[in-house]
LysR family transcriptional regulator
Amino acid sequence: MTLQQLKYVIEVARSRSISNAAQNLFISQPSLSNAIKELEKEMGIMIFSRTNKGIMITPEGSEFLGYARQVVEQAALLEYRYSDTSSPQQHFAVSAQHYAFAVSAFVRLLKEYNPDEYEFTFRETRTYEIIDDVKNLRSEIGVLYLNEFNKKVISKFLREGNLEFHELFEAKPHIFISSKNPLAKSDYVTLSDLDPYPYLSYEQGDYNSFYFSEEILSTLSRPKNIKVSDRATLFNLLIGLNGYTITTGVISHELNSRDIIAVPLKVNERINIGYVTHKNLTNSTLANIYIGYLKETIAEELRQLQL
């Protein structure tokens, strides 16, 4: 086993394709395939399964990749410590539901940690894709919610992916609406209050199950429904159409317009927001810093919400 082979495996896992990985590594596809096969033979495991749909990481491959990333990162740090080369490029990725606090923590990570060279990724994406990203090591951290309705199904997918859910906070449901919405000055709203207004939610693609919905109370029937794929469009429609969406109430006005406000929703529900990690990975330094910033950002936003 060589350090180069470990780098090859990590790139294939990231690219999800032998041919794309070979291009990125500037080697031939047969050379890359042979290097991986030799490593698998030496380790006595199958890291990748080859299917008609492409490369899939096996369960034992996920565990191996967790150790491989740590070895490669430590080798880069060792080289930096005892050579005259510049600091190693830092890599970090997060996948999250559409939460402003997750973006705020990511911004703070870049501003305050400020590595000389980096390749960071932040994916605001669908619920299933968050789980799949962390499972297949495309992201180190995933941010999503659980509640009584979806917990059994989502937890099953987390177990199958060898993932762990770590709770950050429990939120009381709120709605986001325009500051000019007729309900904006209400102390709270009920579900019946919302009937005249368009309901906005995030579409979930092929996994458009109620259990994967980014909003609670997804099984309720509503007269006016609009599905969107990004936060900017959702906010524009909240303002332009006097629509609403159901959320945690935590909003970062540093990143979002003050034209959007949160109003408590009077329902007997709770939302448990947390982050997901891979059981076979030790958190990187960047992951631990990001988690710390997540907690601090949420605490500050909750204080603002209570004012």
Q: What stands out?
A: The chain has a mean pLDDT of 89. The chain has two domains: 3-82, 90-306. DSSP finds nine helices and twelve strands in the chain.
